[in-house]
């Protein structure tokens, strides 16, 4: 059995209530907090609705840099390894290429956190 | 601004400051006419005090700003006594700052306030960034303001070590750029979460660090939002808690980094305008321009600094030390900063390839 309305519906409805029902009645000094709350709800909504884009970007990054053998390492271990390898200069000869791969991964996270920013940066 | 219309609910600190002022100025009496909290940093608390001083050298009505640590203080920046010392040096060097007047040092003895504070003259104007960035000023007024900002930086950067009274500020060990790379790695390690994109950018900053070791007094947080403007002209440079000895271009890179343009990306210098006007104002005081070729490097360093600050702010929320919606959302800004870092570095590399 599914719980209905689902989480996405609840977040969207809560955000609409906050922006349209509550915000107009709040004193001005509380608008900033209300807008931050609305933003947090919007991010959470995009996060639960997001496709596999981010996981895919991470997998590509992993594969390009470490080959198929590293895929079993898991994302957290991989991030630690990549961070260490970058610091110690293991990828010095490939820095521009690694930058492009990281850009794809960062863009995937931005599609959830702030898609407008991606657009302003000419990447949407 | 009517100081009496709003109270802070802090009669203690105002009353304490009045007694302190009476003693410092040799007044017969000091009456607090108003006390109001001013907007400002999350770390410091600024109170506007309107006082009537009777007798002594300061006889009359005065508007003063009292700056102290807020209850949720964070020990990453200078303390108030150190900030007061820096402010005095900057004031003496001709930088437009609120004149620092008196420092209260708490000895920890009973009857004390329990924390340091200092008093400065109130500066006119507003530090709000958005009106400045959103077209309140004409193109000519923007260029004039940028030239003033350049001139202020040049006056500050004329101060070289050693300076009596500033011996608490550490000198960078070698090139300031490499010293920063080390510091940021240490701060990232202290948080303990891997940051591949930041490591990528830090490695680039390390491999491309300028060799120069020239250091001057730097503000450390010179950006739109931290200076006041009255009638289109700069009226005060605020928030000196991150001052230190560093490469002077670090201040300029921070001011020009994308994160301090408040959305007005087309205006490189703090969302106000182009770097030519800033450089002109700087050269008029310094006698020589700053190195525009090195500015892109220091913009990347500025963006890196913001990434590290954002991580630290988010960590205060994540660790449970200070649960806060604002700090939580700052954590979600990290990909924006990472994107800036990658794009800024890619632009430099593309430019370099074109000229190779």
pLDDT below 50 for ≥5 consecutive residues: which ranges of chain A? none
Taken in chain order, the helices and strands of chain A follow as HHHHHH
Question: Share of helix among residues of chain A?
Answer: over 70%
Mean pLDDT of chain B: 92
- Beginning-to-end CA distance, first to last residue of chain A: 37 Å
Number of strands of chain B: 9
- Please work out how many helical segments of chain B DSSP would assign: 11
Q: Give me the strand/helix succession of chain B.
A: HEEEHEEHHHHEEEEHHHHH
CATH level-two architecture of the largest domain in chain B: Alpha-Beta Complex
Q: Give the overall form of chain B.
A: globular
Give the name of the CATH superfamily of the largest domain in chain B: Aminoglycoside phosphotransferase (APH), C-terminal lobe
Looking at the structure, the CATH topology of the largest domain in chain B is Aminoglycoside 3'-phosphotransferase, Chain: A, domain 2
- Structural class, judged by helices and strands of chain A? mainly alpha
User: Which percent range describes the beta-strand content of chain B?
Assistant: 15-25%
Q: Report the largest inter-chain contact.
A: A-B, 36 and 29 residues
> What is the number of domains of chain B?
2
Fraction of residues in β-strands of chain A: under 5%
Count of individual domains of chain A: 2
Uncertain residue ranges of chain B: 1-10
Helix tally of chain A equals 6
Explain what the structure shows.
With 124 residues, chain A is mostly helical. In chain A, 70% of the residues lie in helices and 0% in strands. Chain A is built from six helices and no strands. In chain A, α1 (7-22) runs antiparallel to α2 and α3 runs antiparallel to α5. The termini of chain B are far apart. In chain B, β1 and β2 (44-54) form a beta hairpin. Chain B has 356 residues and is an alpha+beta fold. Chain B has eleven helices and nine strands. The model of chain B is unreliable at 1-10 (pLDDT under 50). The interface between A and B is medium-sized, with 36 and 29 residues.
């Amino acid at each position: 059995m599914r719980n209905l309305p689902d989480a996405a519906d609840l977040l969207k409805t809560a955000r609409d209530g906050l922006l349209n029902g509550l915000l107009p009645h709040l004193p001005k000094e509380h608008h900033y907090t209300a807008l931050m709350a609305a933003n947090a709800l919007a991010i959470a909504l995009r996060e639960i609705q997001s496709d596999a884009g981010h996981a895919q970007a991470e997998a590509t990054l992993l594969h390009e840099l470490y080959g198929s053998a590293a895929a079993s390492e898991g994302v957290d271990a991989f991030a630690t390894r990549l961070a260490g390898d970058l610091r110690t200069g293991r990828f010095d000869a490939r820095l521009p290429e690694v930058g492009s791969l990281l850009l794809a991964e960062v863009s995937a996270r931005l599609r959830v956190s702030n898609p407008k920013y991606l657009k302003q940066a000419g990447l949407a | 601004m009517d100081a009496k219309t709003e109270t802070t609910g802090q009669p203690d600190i105002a009353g304490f400051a009045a007694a302190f002022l009476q003693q410092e100025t040799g007044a017969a009496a000091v009456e607090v006419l108003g006390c109001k909290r001013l907007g400002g940093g999350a770390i410091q608390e600024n109170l506007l005090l309107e006082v009537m001083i009777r007798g002594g050298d300061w006889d009359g009505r005065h508007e003063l700003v009292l700056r102290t640590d807020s209850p949720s203080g964070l020990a990453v920046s200078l303390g108030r006594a150190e900030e007061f010392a820096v402010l005095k040096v900057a004031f003496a060097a001709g930088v437009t700052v609120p004149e620092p007047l008196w420092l209260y040092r708490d000895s920890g003895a009973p009857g004390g306030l329990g924390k340091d504070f200092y008093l400065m003259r109130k500066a006119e104007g507003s530090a709000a960034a958005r009106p400045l960035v959103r077209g309140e000023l004409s193109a000519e007024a923007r260029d004039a303001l940028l030239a003033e900002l350049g001139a202020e930086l040049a006056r500050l950067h004329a101060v070289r070590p050693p300076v009596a009274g500033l011996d608490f500020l550490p000198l960078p060990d070698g090139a300031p750029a490499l010293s920063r790379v080390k510091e940021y790695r240490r701060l990232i390690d202290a948080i303990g979460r891997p940051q591949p994109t930041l490591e990528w950018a830090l490695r680039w900053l390390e491999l491309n660090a300028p060799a120069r070791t020239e250091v001057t007094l730097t503000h450390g947080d010179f950006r739109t939002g931290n200076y006041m403007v009255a009638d289109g002209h700069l009226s005060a440079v605020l928030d000196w808690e991150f001052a230190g000895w560093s490469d002077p271009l670090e201040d300029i890179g921070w001011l020009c980094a994308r994160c301090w343009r408040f959305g007005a990306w087309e205006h490189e210098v703090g969302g106000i305008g182009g770097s030519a006007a800033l450089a002109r104002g700087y050269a008029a005081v310094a006698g020589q321009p700053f190195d525009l070729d090195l500015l892109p490097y220091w913009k990347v360093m500025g963006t890196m600094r913001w990434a590290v600050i954002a991580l630290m702010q988010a960590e205060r929320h994540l660790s449970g030390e200070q649960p806060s919606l604002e700090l939580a959302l700052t954590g979600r800004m990290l990909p924006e900063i990472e994107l800036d870092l990658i794009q800024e570095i890619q632009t430099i590399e593309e430019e370099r390839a074109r000229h190779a």
